Amino acid sequence: MTTQNQRENILVKAYEIWEAEGRPLGRDMEHWIKAEMLIAAKNTKKKAKPAAKKKAPAKAKAKPVAKAKAKAPAKAKSKAKTKAKS
Q1: Is residue 72 part of a domain?
Q2: Containing domain of residue 20, as a range?
Q3: C-alpha to C-alpha distance for 36 and 38, rounded to whole angstroms
């Protein structure tokens, strides 16, 4: 059995469907059933909401390993070659 509140909700929804379809005559039962189905589906979705997912603990981020500093290129020693005069 439906409660009074549910019947009122169905009535309002059926009326909305009737108006949306251009107020056709003789389709009241069709609109009522359609309204019942829409409201039942809406209520089912509300009940079937999944529980809030627990977030996994944050993984500790590994600190980046400091790279060894690159050595500056050795300065080229200028070798002054003296040419022996012959």
Answers
A1: no
A2: 4-47
A3: 6
